[in-house]
Amino acid sequence: MHFIDYSIVALYMLAVILLGFYFEKKASKGIDSYFLGDRNIPWWALGASGMAANVDLSGTMIIAGLLYALGTKGFFIEFRGGIVLIMAFFMVFMGKWNRRARVMTVAEWMRFRFGSGKQGDMARLISAVANIIFCIGSVSYFAIGGGKFFGEFFGLDEHTGTLLLIVITTIYTVASGLYGVVWTDVFQGLLIFAAVIAICIISFQKVTLPSEFTVSMPSTNGQFTNVNTSFHEWSRLLPPLKMNLEGAYSVFNLLGLTILLYILKTALEGSGGAGGYITQRYFAAKNDREAGLLSLFWISLLSFRWPLVAAFAVLGIYHGLTGHVIQDPELVVPVVIKEYVPAGIKGLIITGFLAAAMSTFTAMINAAAAYWVKDLYQAFIKPNASEKSLVVQSRLASIIIVVVGVLFSFSIANINDIWGWLCLGLGSGLAIPLVLRWFWWRFNGYGFAIGTFTGMVAAIITKMTMPLAPEFISFIIPSGASFAGCILGTYFSPHTDFEVLEKFYCITRPFGLWRPVKVKAIKGNALDKIDSENRRDIISTFIAVPWQVLLFMTGMLFIMKNWSNFFISLSIFTLLSIALYFSWFRNLDKS
To answer: Can you tell me whether residue 345 is helix, strand or coil?
Structure first.
């Protein structure tokens, strides 16, 4: 790197720290300010913040590596989480359902759904613990990717580089809460967008891939194998049902079944409402319409990630054509930046990726701290704590969660390892109870608590005892254990009080198995209006999911220069956009 590149990075680090301390006073007013920004942040800022939080450094390195090694097949593998398909569900209905509760965390929401007695307390407690564990795993995932990136550029070992990045990020997150997270995300989003434009222009001008070329894939024992492929196979529009890969990527060989499981997992998570930093932005939204608009803006901004990772993959292959094949796919991003980006622009791009890494990290720790403060400390330990005391607890919790996550990362070999487990293992184990809470009136707080606990334990045991198991095993065991726990816990305990259920239904107005409650709570024209809204939402979801997939795919195919597949994808996307306008957008609540 040139001196000007180091200067750009240093100025950026200083700017985000100063911005964090600028918002410190606002965040210190109380936990509503610290975790929700007083619910007064514009929808476009929340959407831009969500995009910045999703475009993480570790994920970009994984996805670019998968595209480099597998082409568009890597895109379909990222149905597991990298495409963030749950955003289509949030855009159509899940975002407004969460916003209507007017709570601070998913765990606090449990009392809204199950009541303030033992049911609600049990569900709230286990939800808070599960989400904190997930956030700790996400911090570890962030730490591994950040370490690889820093080590490649600054001549540091992985752990030293990670610690430097984490210390700086933690400083402004702890100081400023959601105010600082969102507005630094907006600033960082501009840097990410600049990085996208720069890399895409370099790739598009410099590279047209030949009909055949060589890539590298991870084999066993940390080794890598060169593999010959064709441009037609690498940039195909539809994935094959089977592949014949060896080594670390062999878990994807039954690709058709794997994608089916990923779609099922996405449907579960999208219908369950997920949690953490995604839902936190909807809790902070002003109204239903802004919840929809922030989702649309979030998805639209996320679409620029896919031309970016395609450009990295294309330049990575070009590097192999003109020099040496890049052996570790997860190092494609730093190698391409080092080799093909000029001074000045290099500093800007590295700063953009530091911004992406820091945005994800800040969102995770802010959400995790909210679970500790609101759902454990205030709810069960010190209910009468002052606002000042709660803000202090928020900052202490953020620091402790970071330290635990970093220590846990030392035992993990690669980014894909922890990402796959978070998405398919732990994520699947937690998904079933999150779905049932919305769509089944009989499901109660005991069922939620037992289902979440069994799913979480099953995911951890599966990871410890079968670390190399195929991903469908990592999905089936935790989700199956969770479902069994949900059913047993629900039917061996009384249902939630009908007054609680009626209040929940009247405010949230979900679709699903709610007839015994809704016919008692809602009458006449109001019931017809709710049913009409539910039907539109269901139809729109079936349009929105392929619409989002094709939005991302179209930009990627453009950078790959597969023009026939690009125009097919663009045509179908246009038709889906028209359908989505009539089924969803024009019906957004303007009140």
So the answer is: helix
- Residue 406 Ramachandran class (φ > 0 left, ψ -120 to 50 alpha, else beta): alpha
CA 183 distance to own-chain centroid: 19
Q: Measured on CA atoms in the order 334, 340, 342, 345, is the torsion positive or negative?
A: negative
What is the C-alpha separation between 558 and 171, in angstroms, rounded? 40
pLDDT at 496: 94
The tens digit of pLDDT for each residue in 393-402 reads 877 887 887 7
Query: Can you give the three-state secondary structure of 170-201, one letter per residue?
Result: HHHHHHHHHHHHHHHHHHHHHHHHHHHHHHHH
Orientation of helix 445-465 relative to helix 106-114, angle to 10°: 140
Whole-number Å distance between alpha carbons of 270 and 434: 10
3-state DSSP helix/strand/coil percent for the chain, to nearest 5?
80, 5, 20
- What sign does the dihedral 239-242-244-246 (CA atoms) show? positive
Fold entry, domain 3-587? Sodium/glucose cotransporter (1.20.1730)
Task: List the one residue out of 199, 224, 158, 257 whose CA is nearest residue 60.
Answer: 199
**Measured distance CA(475)–CA(427) in Å, rounded:** 9
List, in order, residues 6 or more apart from 11 with CB less than 8 Å away: none
Nearest to 52 by CA among 196, 200, 186: 186
pLDDT tens for 539-591 read 999 999 999 999 999 999 999 999 999 999 999 999 999 999 999 999 998 77
Domain layout of the chain by residue ranges: 3-587
Surface-to-core class of residue 108, CB atoms within 10 Å of its CB (0-12 exposed, 13-18 middle, 19+ buried): buried
Mean pLDDT, residues 447-468 taken together = 82
- The number of C-alpha atoms within 13 Å of 204 and in the hemisphere containing its C-beta is 15
